[in-house]
Amino acid sequence: NAGVTQTPKFRVLKTGQSMTLLCAQDMNHEYMYWYRQDPGMGLRLIHYSVGEGTTAKGEVPDGYNVSRLKKQNFLLGLESAAPSQTSVYFCASSTSGSKNIQYFGAGTRLSVL
Amino acid sequence: GQNIDQPTEMTATEGAIVQINCTYQTSGFNGLFWYQQHAGEAPTFLSYNVLDGLEEKGRFSSFLSRSKGYSYLLLKELQMKDSASYLCAVRGPNAGKSTFGDGTTLTVKP
């Protein structure tokens, strides 16, 4: 009963390095999301997807790219990491219905030095 | 766009009742969600309102007034484990997108 799984759980990067965060869900959900959460703040939407092969920009997309080649996976890429991208990243998935409750992964804690 | 306001912090006593308010301004409304987030953990779903009125689920209830752009989460018989951040989220007109408030950190004291 895995739900939403994020890897890795922790990562430290140097400025300018690249990395990919992986999100996998086993609930056959149509929608998937990537958020970042900074201390004392709510969740800000980076990118989201309403189905396999589709992606769209959220509130704070700059510096990030995403891909959804398979329905169960949603990848978040940082091409050239910056200290401002130090944050906790959450992936979530939901159904496409009106009551689309989001189920969250455990989060990835990323530090960019 | 969406603008959501919640109090930053609240404190209450074990066994008491607390009400956490959320006001929103939106260009389109398709439902309001409340999530609970314990420190260092992921958010988990608590309640959903799309029509005006009160939804009750055990110790937790949530109220919505669409005309006033207002919701509240009511927690009864507070327990220490209710100490957490409570996030209000509004689903807008675009499929799948919800905007989250900054959350209200509730501290329950003995």
Shape of chain B: globular
Number of alpha- plus pi-helical segments of chain A: 0
Largest interface: A-B, 26 and 25 residues
Helix content of chain A: under 10%
* Sheet/helix structural class of chain B: mainly beta
Largest sheet of chain A: 7 strands, mixed
Tell me what portion of residues of chain B adopts beta-strand conformation. over 45%
Cα gyration radius of chain B (Å): 13 Å
- The total of helices of chain B stands at 0
> How many β-strand runs of chain A?
11
Q: Mind summarizing the main beta sheet of chain B?
A: 6 strands, mixed
Which percent range fits the helix content of chain B? under 10%
Distance between the termini of chain B: 40 Å
Average pLDDT of chain A, rounded to a whole number, is 94
Oligomer: heterodimer
Strand residue content of chain A: over 45%
Rg on CA atoms of chain A, Å? 13 Å
Query: Could you give the distance between the termini of chain A?
Result: 36 Å
Structure description:
With 113 residues, chain A is mostly beta strands. Chain A is 0% helix and 53% strand. Chain A contains no helices and eleven strands. In chain A, the strands form two sheets. In chain A, strands 2, 4, 5, 6, 9, 10 and 11 form a seven-stranded mixed sheet that branches. In chain B, 0% of the residues lie in helices and 58% in strands. In chain B, the strands form two sheets. In chain B, strands 2, 4, 5, 9, 10 and 11 form a six-stranded mixed sheet that branches. The mean pLDDT of chain B is 94. Chains A and B meet through strand 4, strand 5 and strand 10 of A and strand 5, strand 9 and strand 10 of B.
In short:
The complex is a heterodimer of chains A (113) and B (110). Chain A is an all-beta fold and 113 residues long. Chain A contains no helices and eleven strands.
